[in-house]
């Protein structure tokens, strides 16, 4: 019986270390993204207003390939652009034989959704609103389940075309397109 105790302790230590190896703190880029202007992506919907051109003023969705399809000008690249950059792109295309001096305004009508998985009341896809934190998003998803780890969550985020996952506190802000995973607590 005495010979199994050290073996048991060794196995316990190895299993605890293995559990710690999956810990992934949030990369520095997670928090830097919050200070930059919002960049459009697939699933966003924008309201384009071309003053004195009722036929062009409309709500357009960014398609899976990252483009808007606008009458007269066709496909306009939107993925990775800010709303102000998109205004310039659309105005430039309209100047090419359609309008002399187009006055274009772009505003975000609807952000791409966030996704919440794991130990919550109702996992799924939810609408993003500016100022949304992890805690607020979990409340929208029905709150924590009884087994949920309420200290921190894992977030998967697309940062400049690279998908990264990191562990953050529940008070951290979310960005459109984030996937939140609420882990199960150990004890």
Structure write-up:
The chain has 187 residues and is an alpha+beta fold. It has 2 domains: 82 residues, Outer membrane lipoprotein wza fold like, CATH 3.10.560; 67 residues, wza like domain (wza like fold, 2-Layer Sandwich). It is built from 4 helices and 10 strands. The strands form 3 sheets. A 5-stranded mixed β-sheet has the order 7-6-10-8-9, with helices on one face. A hairpin with a 2-residue loop joins strand 8 and strand 9. The two termini are 28 Å apart.
Topology:
Elements: H1 4-21, H2 28-32, E1 45-50, E2 58-61, E3 67-70, E4 74-77, H3 83-95, E5 104-110, E6 114-118, E7 124-126, H4 134-140, E8 152-159, E9 162-169, E10 179-182
Parallel strand pairs: 6-10
Antiparallel strand pairs: 1-2, 1-5, 3-4, 6-7, 8-9, 8-10
Keywords: Signal
Protein name: Sugar ABC transporter substrate-binding protein
Domain Polysaccharide export protein N-terminal: 36-108
Strand order of the largest sheet: 7-6-10-8-9
Mean of all residue-level pLDDT scores: 87
Query: How large, in whole angstroms, is the Cα Rg?
Result: 23 Å
Please give the number of β-strands.
10
What is the share of helical residues?
10-25%
Biggest sheet descriptor: 5 strands, mixed
Question: What's the order of the H and E elements?
Answer: HHEEEEHEEEHEEE
Number of helices: 4
Kindly report how far apart the N and C termini lie: 28 Å
CATH class placement of the largest domain: Alpha Beta
Assembly context of the chains: single chain
Q: Could you give me the name of the CATH homologous superfamily of the largest domain?
A: Outer membrane lipoprotein wza domain like
Q: What is the name of the CATH topology of the largest domain?
A: Outer membrane lipoprotein wza fold like
The backbone outline, from C-alpha atoms, is elongated
Architecture per CATH nomenclature, i.e. the level-2 architecture of the largest domain: Roll
Protein name: Sugar ABC transporter substrate-binding protein
Pfam families: Poly_export, SLBB
GO molecular function, one term: polysaccharide transmembrane transporter activity
InterPro entries: Poly_export (IPR049712), Poly_export_N (IPR003715), Soluble_ligand-bd (IPR019554)
